[in-house]
Write a structure and sequence with these properties.
By secondary structure, the protein is α/β, with parallel strands linked by helices. The chain has eight helices and ten strands. Helix 2 links the parallel strand 3 and strand 4. It is globular and about 55 Å long. The structure holds pyridoxal-5'-phosphate.
């Protein structure tokens, strides 16, 4: 997406610098603006390409990753796709460990990009398309086993600073530049919390008055201290019911919002029909929460959101009927 006058040396350099678009059709009749960052236009069709690049390049710079070393990561598909692209171009073998509960388009895309994909069965009570914290714990166990067995580098998106840094150094500053700094709030559906944390840090540094809200699935809003009643929600890519997310900095969190499956799905469908934005469940959740803010505490404001990944990743689900 980056503007260019000469060819890029590789696909890796095309990551980031995605367009920022005003969702003026969805906000018709509502006082305020939603500015949406089209992260689904990255080469792997999600915002996670950014962290894949940052984590690998940080590890190379710090000498933590040796030439030829295998790279392993747990993924709901998007980080894995980003890592498959970055590792493919740089010549590392990449093993993606993913729950069978995530949509299969993702596994196919990662293997097409050269990754070795290891699928982990869900817990007996879990449903395909609804990956719970318990399912994710099984994926984590398998990822740890493979790292140990192959003496691999773990591109740990939950813990490594590259996740935060990708958004702090790039996504956040890009939004500030593209909006002329004119944003009042930011809300983001948290998985690892890296996108929220990095963007919020950049925004607060620029203007501490920018309000930053974490979005959680209704019934799995454990970060805000609510009881877990609905672990198997359908908003893929986050809401894992984990109370400890090391990427998050409490001082940057102004509040928490909740979005239902139904609201995320309805808004994802409206984004496609009314804005020409073909994005996934979590993008629907981000815009649904932004609309809620414009109707409540942020009336008349400008709210920044990320459109996290492409709707193409959900063709096998009931998002598109
Ligand atoms: C589609 C999608 N949305 C949202 C998220 C959450 O982003 P983060 O991990 O930065 O909190 C992810 C993370 O994998 C994702 O894949």
């Amino acid at each position: 997406m980056t503007q260019q006058n000469t060819p890029f040396p590789s696909t890796i350099e095309t990551i980031g610098n995605t367009p920022l678009v005003e969702l003026a059709r969805l906000t018709r009749g509502i006082n305020g603006r939603i500015l949406a960052k089209m992260e689904y236009l990255n080469p792997g069709f999600s915002k996670k390409d950014r962290i894949a690049r940052q984590i690998i390049e940080d590890a190379e710079a710090e000498g933590l990753l040796q030439p030829g070393q295998t790279i392993v990561e747990l993924t709901s598909g998007n980080t894995g796709t980003g890592l498959a692209i970055v590792c493919g171009v740089k010549g590392y073998h990449f093993v993606a460990v993913m729950s069978r509960g995530n949509s299969m388009e993702r596994a196919r895309m990662m293997s097409a990009l050269g990754a070795e994909v290891v699928l982990v069965n869900q817990l007996p009570e879990s449903q395909p398309g609804q990956v719970s914290g318990g399912d994710l714990a099984l994926v984590e166990q398998e990822a740890q086993r493979i790292v140990y067995e192959r003496k691999a580098f773990r591109a740990d998106q939950f813990r490594l600073a590259g996740n935060f840094r990708a958004h702090y150094l790039n996504t956040g500053p890009e939004i500030l530049r593209q909006s002329g700094g004119a944003i009042d709030a930011f809300c983001d559906f948290a998985g690892t919390g890296g996108s929220f944390a990095g963007c919020a840090a950049a925004f607060k540094e620029f203007n501490p008055a920018i309000k930053c809200f974490i979005i959680e699935p209704a019934g799995a809003a454990v970060l805000s201290g609510e009881p877990l009643t609905y672990p198997n929600h359908r908003i893929q890519g986050g809401g894992y019911s984990m109370t400890d997310l090391p990427q998050l900095r409490p001082e940057h969190i102004d509040g928490y919002l909740q979005v239902t499956d139904d609201a995320a799905i309805q808004i994802a469908r409206r984004l496609a029909k009314e804005e020409g934005v073909f994005a996934g469940y979590s993008s629907g959740a981000n815009v649904a929460a932004a609309l809620h803010l414009l109707e409540t505490s942020c009336r008349g404001g400008s709210i920044a959101v990320l459109l996290c990944d492409s709707g193409l990743k959900y063709l096998s689900t009931d998002l598109w009927t």
